[in-house]
Fold Peroxidase.
Amino acid sequence: MAKSINFILLFSLLAFAPFCQIEGSLYPQFYEGSCPRVHDIVNSIVAKAFAKDPRMAASLLRLHFHDCFVKGCDASILLDSSGTIISEKRSNPNRDSARGFEVIDEIKSAIEKECPGTVSCADILALSARDSTVLTGGPNWEVPLGRRDSLGASIQGSNNNIPAPNNTFETILTKFKLKGLDIVDLVALSGSHTIGDSRCTSFRQRLYNQSGNGKADFTLDQNYAAKLRTQCPRSGGDQNLFVLDFVTPTKFDNNYFKNLLANKGLLSSDEILLTKNKVSADLVKKYAERNDIFFEQFAKSMIKMGNITPLTDSKGEIRKHCRKINK
Ligand code: HEM
Ligand SMILES: *[C@@H]1O[C@H](CO)[C@@H](O)[C@H](O)[C@H]1NC(C)=O
Ligand SMILES: *[C@@H]1O[C@H](CO)[C@@H](O)[C@H](O)[C@H]1NC(C)=O
């Protein structure tokens, strides 16, 4: 008798555990009661934006990354400057580069009509990043939800925590580790560069003067470098755009890793995954060989990145407009 009661207790714990909120943690069904259509709304607006501009998928995926690395996944990146807030949009990694803010605004306003004051901008970023990955042919995953929005921004955090394309391997790995991410996450998430664009200014150094000796980066295929130089001159053309994956620029796949093996990674931060560390080089080779293993790890690492110090429970707020804090 006692045994069967224990069994029933255990069973109900197991059955209901996924639905009850463990304090401070996120879970996929968070809006099931309060805004059940949130997934459809996000998906339809992201799909519409992607149909109009295929690059938008990449831009939305990157926004979630640049949000999570600064004060956690709290939509701090979405705040405009006002009062004491200095917008992260002005930071080095974001200025003239981060995009997709209008799409997030459109999603937010559609959701506010359906369920006012319920869904955070931080969760909209996480859902948009997942939907963008799926739309471009990448893996799907259930997005843990329940983040709340910050009351402030950190331009210093944006400048310091987000890796720069000419950072050393050790610096980049350290920046990931400071956010609780490891070398496996670093390589898998860098696979995001299978879609989207980079400006000339982000990799020019590799084309002309990689190590201060007036020479191009020797880990960059010399024919590919010559082609890039025609559109990315020594000076000027800073904003000229180049696809990060020249083989399948709008398709989420493992060609990014295959390109690295051919010395045709666009950014220095891409190529050093192969050239500066044995563990990451082996991961690059594995993902180049096995798209399925890349996809599986990418999904896991995205969930891990999405869990970086979220605001939950009564912390922060649910913004009415993603660009400004509530009055
Ligand atoms: C590992 C360190 C990383 C560095 C140094 C880095 C750096 C960069 C740079 C320099 C660009 C081009 C920006 C421009 O010139 O406008 C870029 C684009 C991009 N990054 Fe990263 N990134 C890193 C990791 C990530 C991660 C973890 C993600 C997502 C999870 C990501 C997603 C993207 C996407 C999708 C684009 C294209 C954006 C667009 O076309 O609008 N990156 N990244
Ligand atoms: C990296 O790029 C920045 C911006 O272009 C530049 O100021 C800095 O000197 C570069 N760092 C190295 C180590 O080359
Ligand atoms: C390359 O960079 C170094 C150090 O940043 C600088 O002193 C040198 O003049 C540069 N050379 C060329 C050819 O631009």
